[in-house]
Structure formats: C-alpha cells, structure tokens
Amino acid sequence: MDKKFDHLHLESQIYRFWEKGGYFKPKVKKGQEPFVITLPPPNVTGELHLGHAMYAIEDILIRFHRMRGEPTLWLPGFDHASIAVSYLIDKQLAKEGKNRKEVGKEEFLRRARKFALDSKKRIRTQLKSLGLSLDWSREAYTMDEIRSQVVKEAFLRLYKKGLIYQGERMINWCPHCQTALSDLENEYKEEEGQLYYMKYGPFTLATTRPETKFGDTAVAVHPKDKRYQKWIGKEFVYESLIGPKKMKVVADEAVDPEFGTGVVKITPGHDSTDFEIGQRHNLKIIKVIDEKGRLTKVAGRFAGLSVSEARKKVVEELTKRGDLVKTENISHAVGHCQRCNTVTEPLVSKQWFVKIKPLAKPAIEAVKKGKIKIIPKRSTKVYLHWLENIHDWCISRQLWWGHKIPIEGEEDVLDTWFSSGLWPFSVFGWPKETADLKTFYPNTVRETGYDILFFWVAREIMMALFLTGQVPYKTVYLHGLVRDEKGQKMSKTKGNSLDPLQLTSKFGTDALRMALTYGTAAGNDLSLSENKVMAMRNFANKIWNASRFVLENPESEVKNSKLKNKDDQWILKELEKTVKEVTSHIEAFRFGQASEKIYDFFWHTFCDQYIEKSKARRNETQATLLYVLETSLKLLHPFMPFVTEEIWQEARRRKTGFFKEESLIIAPWPK
Question: Closest by alpha carbon to 307, among 294, 292, 288?
Fold first, then answer.
C-alpha cells in the first residue's frame, strides 16, 4: 500500500470504476419504495462555484440509501438559463465590436446553443470530479426536445384554465438587458442615498426619487393619522416644475406614518407599493420612465434625461424655487440586475403573468398538513408567509434565448424559472405515463440553498400540485450559503472567493466534501477556509495511514479472538454506538453531527486509543481491527467516497476475509 493516497491520480480512476460497474443506476425491486433526488440543475454558464459543491449533501443521502439496498436514483441535468446566457453572448459579441441586432436572431441563437453545449460538457466533468454518483444515463436539459414539450404542455394547461393571462402590471425591468426580470434576478443592494423633503402643495413630504414626481397621481396618508384627517378625499392644485397639477389625497394602510412626514407621493407606474395603492384607489398610471431608463415626454423639458441626470436636475430646480426643505443621508436597498449590475427600474409593462394565488393555496395546505416537511423547521413560517402574500408572477422575457411563449404572434420567451419549476416531473417525460414517471415520481427530497425557497421550491410545489395532483417530494432540506472564514460573502472583487476545483486539486475531493459538511446545520451559513479543507485532508491521511497499519500486518494470519479482552469489547461497543448515532443523524438530515461523530470515533477512539493499545497483542486483535476498519469505511463512505473506496479495493486484494462486496459503494450499511 502506497505511503499516501494519490488523489490527483486515483480519483478519476475510481469514478470510472463506479461508472463502468453501473453502480449509479437504480436497481428497481418490486415492493421497494425508491429514494429519488433530481439534481438542482446548474446553469449552463461555464463553471461551477462553491455553492455547487454543496451537492455533496445530496450525494451523502444517495450513497447512504444506496448502501441500504434501496432503489436509489439521483438524476442529473442542466438549466438553459435564458437571461444569464443571453448576457454572456452579448458580452462575447461586444468584444468583437458587434451587438445582437447586427448579427441577427439566428446567429445569436447558434452562439447560445454552442455556448450551452460547451458549458454542459465542462460542468459534467466538474460534477464527476466532485465524486457525485449521478445516473448519467438519465441526464436531462431544460431546453431538450422532451422538456420543451413539457413546458409547452404546462403553459397551455394553465392558460386554458385562465391561470395565465397577458396584462399590464408592475415588473422589474433592466434598461441594459432590455427585459423584464424575475425577483431573483433583481438583486437588492444596500446603497447610500438621500431622502429629499420637498413642498408639495399644502404638504411637505419625503422621497428618495424626486425625478418620478411627473408620474405622481396622488398623495397618501395613513387613515388613522390624525394630522391629515381633514385632507382625506380632497383635491388640491400645486405648481409643479412643468406647470399646475391637480392631486388627490387618499388614505391607505400601506403608508407608514413614521416615514418622513407621514405623507407620501404615489407614482403607480414606477413603484410596486404605489401600484397596489393605485389599484385600490383607481388612480391613473402615468409612465414617466421608459424601457431605456430615460424620462418620457410627460416630464416636459426633462424628457430624454437619464434617471440620475433627471434627479440631479429636479433637485437643482426645487432648490432654486425654495421647494426643497431639506435632505437626509440614508442607506436603502436598490434593485440591480443580477447579470449586468445595472440599476433596475420598477415600471408597468404589458407582460404575461401567472395568476398565482389559486396555485398558492394548495401549496400552503400541503405544508400545513405535513405532506411536505421543510428543514429547518423555522423556514416553514417563511415559506407560508411568502405564499400567503404572493403576487402574480411575470413569466415573459424580452429575449431570444429560451422557450418561446406558445401563443401565435408572440415573440417573448418564458422566464427560466417556469421550466425549472417543472423539473421534478419534466425529467421523467410528463405528461406521458413513462415507466420512470410511474416508478420515480414523486421525488423523495429537494435539497437546495435557502435563498431560492421562494423562487424555485415554492414554484415546483405549486406547479406539481396543479399539473400532477401530487406533491413533488416529501422533504425540503435547505442548506446555508458558503461564506469565508470571517463569515463574509465570497466574491472575486473582495478577493475572498475559493475555487472548488483548485481546492480539490490541492487537497483532494474528500477533504472539500468533509469540510463543507463538518460542523454545519440546516439553514445556517457555513464558513469555509483553506485551513479547514487542509484539516480534512489531514483526516483523509489519518484514514489512509490507519488502514495501512491494519492491512499491512506482517503476521497477517487472522486469529479469531473470543473477545475476552476488555479493550476489544470496549471498541466494539463504541463502534455499535457510533453506527446508531451516525445512522440516526443522517436519517434526520443532521449531516454536520453525523460527520463530527464518525470523525471523532475514527481519529480519537479507534486510532488514538484502540490501535495504540492493540500494538502489544497485534495478532490477537487483527480480526477486531479489520471489522472496525470495514465498518468505519462504510460510515465514512458517503462523506469521503474516494479514499474509502481505494482502501476497500486494497483490502479486497489482500483477501482478509472481510470487505467482500466488489465495491464499497454497494456494500450494506452497517446495522
């Protein structure tokens, strides 16, 4: 046995051995309920990041249930990521001094298809390098022929039931990408800004956006605010920057009497709260900012200015007129396009929407009645609150890359989250009654980051209940975000991001996987540093060295001890206790505690204590050493699959009487 585990050389060999053996394919047995996870499909945007390395949690579950002899399926796939790929193709064209209009739709789509294909190949290799035991024979893609038909069928069923409609509503708009955005693609960032207090007829009110005042159609107060009772329902005329303007005073509970002066201007065309207030009070919608982020002709002499230019100009003129009372520095959340980082504009636009409340009701009931369990439990309240206050979902995008809306004459494509919301059953070819759909749907677990509970998980549940009449899975497990050792969000600009492939190259895949699970808990962010990965590399070395000691006994004849020695009895009791605890922790989705327990047992109990004690009576303890090693490798395998498999194969070559299964991946889980 070599002095160290050569991860760079051996990991790829071991993965090919598993693939060749067909171990990733489920062995369906009549009467046995399968264990199923559909991989959250990575976007075909090039490279994996540390968040994707959290797929290790799913692999722990898959390997655990496979070793228990259950028909186990982990189905891989990819997401076409319409806006992300569109943005990257635009960047590619810009480097060549071109744009999408110059090259045309066909050339743009050709580039997008090639980019997606190249990305899939690269990501597939990366997923394999992480040791993920996925059934590649069932790989799916949100834009392949089968999934495209599923998307069309789902859209038409919702449309025929009146749950999809076209209308004018408030949406997030990116002036640079020239498309509507999903809530996930509209990232809010805290920025320093100013609160402007300005005279408004008989009132003084505060706003962060004075440039939108040309689209105001009312001012609002809280109905119980005693300061303004006499004004509710009345109208007043004031001299605006572009002439006299009539304004109505409305009372609405959405107004915070503690904000500013308790009076707010209502711009229904450019603020989501104002839009809702406008709907309740039948206020006119005036479009003052266009799709390019410039003021429209309703702004008079300010028309054509960008938002930032108009804000500066409006503030200057208000100051000259004596209408600017004061300004305050504030920190507030500003929406940005996730892809290009442009400040987004909330505006009313004619788009396609899903009428979401009728779909949300069954999704709420499914969780309340326990048909779906969310881990951690605290996330259940968050899920229910979001669904109980949900708004209609804008599903149209002004892009070329994506699923075209299946309505004649329509050129828009669907939001990527529409197709990914069908993932738990689209992968099996729904609505056709395929053998896989009958066998593997519903799935068992949805494991993903807590940050997409609303954007993806909730939509999967709503879509599944409406289209299949079943919940898509029984359990939702939410992991935290991977942060740096100081708990800060990782980013390339901060210089604190870690590349998962560089870490696995340096320390081995097992070390990274163990570092991502050790000491973590559901829904909690985890801090990762190179030192933590290095510590787990040291643990992998400990496993290797201890195994060398056990397997390279120069007096290799195993004598069956009657275990009269108290040390032997003690280690077997400790092992039995460890098996029960590790099993219980995995069953309860406590992966951090499971990994801590097996780490502590192997290093401190087995190596530091029992192996040291065994050296004085080596031959007598050999059978116990082999049994404890064999069982420990089984417990470690879901967490650290490569080093444990290589030791298993080395042990089989030595014909010790233990390690009988041809691969550790299918060895029975210890009881």
Answer: 294
